[in-house]
Design a protein that fits this description.
alpha+beta; metal ion binding; two-stranded parallel ribbon
C-alpha cells in the first residue's frame, strides 16, 4: 500500500471525491510547505505504526 498526496489548484468541491478515491491528504493553493510536510510525516508515521 502507498499513501497518495494531492496538491495544486483543486476546487474544494472535488476534495471529497479525491478522499473517496484514496487520497490520504489534499493540499490546496496557499498551503504552507512546513504545514504540508508536517501532515505528510504524521500520515507516514501512522501508516508505519499500523505495520504497513
Amino acid at each position: 500500500d502507498i499513501l497518495v498526496f494531492v496538491g495544486g489548484v483543486i476546487p474544494p468541491q472535488d476534495y471529497d471525491f479525491l478522499y473517496e478515491s484514496g487520497a490520504a491528504l489534499v493540499f490546496g493553493p496557499g498551503t504552507r510547505i512546513p504545514d504540508a510536510a508536517g501532515k505528510v510525516l504524521e500520515a507516514v508515521q501512522k501508516k508505519r505504526a499500523k505495520g504497513c
